[in-house]
Amino acid sequence: MPDAPQHGVPYEGGQHEPVLVTEVVNWLRASEGGLFVDCTVGLGGHAVAILQASHQSRVIGLDRDLESLNLATRRLEEFGDRFTGNQANFKELRQVLECHAITQTAGILADLGISSFQLASEERGFSFQSEAPLDMRMDRSAGATASELVNSLSESELADVIYKFGEERGARRIARAIVRERGPRPVTTTTQLARIVVQALNVQGRWRIHPATRTFQALRIAVNGELEGLAEFVSMAAGYLQPSGRLAVISFHSLEDGIIKRAFRLMTGQCQCEPRRRGPKPSDYTDTAGRPEIRSSDHQIGGVVCDRCGAQKLVEILTKKPIQPSQDEVRRNPRARSARLRVCARLH
Prior knowledge:
Distance between the termini: 32 Å
Largest sheet: 7 strands, mixed
Radius of gyration: 21 Å
Number of strands: 11
Strand order of the largest sheet: 5-4-3-6-7-11-10
Helix content: 25-40%
Order of helices and strands: EEHEHEHEHEHHHHHHHEHEEEHE
Number of domains: 3
Number of helices: 13
CATH class of the largest domain: Alpha Beta
Strand content: 15-25%
CATH topology of the largest domain: Rossmann fold
Structural class: alpha/beta
């Protein structure tokens, strides 16, 4: 695989290297040209590669992080009107495409990872490597900060967040330690929280992965609502593909990857219901647990297999197993080590 430094995007303090960039370009067939949507454009690394692959390509870029989007827009000025940036969450794809009067695309990409720029921005509070306010918001104009969550949630609520989104076995010990620490003074900085976690887990000596990694991941996911609506986004995005158009999603932890995997399977017509629950829907369009039915819409066109779970034959999965970075890429960019790429293609 060729090296990809030409797609790296410089910023003050470093350079952002997009992950699996060659694989993304190849699986999206960007060299054939067409209209592509980068739903998490970040600093524009993947968008640059797509636009360089063909002079006949255009990219609509979305990002909720205005600082990143502004850097990407400046980086992509050389491509003129072939790139259009929009400050929006990837889950707002429908609104953005309707605004641009777009009904079909050649390919859609969502890279769900946090960028090097965001990690390196000390005031954002994503990393425990340096002293910084405990913020973690990707869109700093809205929502509660990580500090506000840490200091307001009950001990049981904190433990649930850390266990559910961080898959941290020591979640209860960490939550108990946070509540104890915030009694005299609130927990407001990254290093303060990292110290609490290390002490709570009582980890001795050197470690390969910092003990606070899972806790920071959990809080970041909670602050930004990263898993909310992810499955619905996948279905919506597939609905905006032209026949044979491709959807590529890069995830970075098992929670995201599991949601993407199940959503892809659902769109191949694989019923996800428990066997005893298969069958026609109740007349009020809710299942026995009161959940609303997922029904076909203008942008979910396909042969419906199961009215209960919404399974329909809409796509073909192209990656039977997720694509992982090569050893060369991981050596060059260690943050790529957990990346997983899944791709599907629209049937009709």
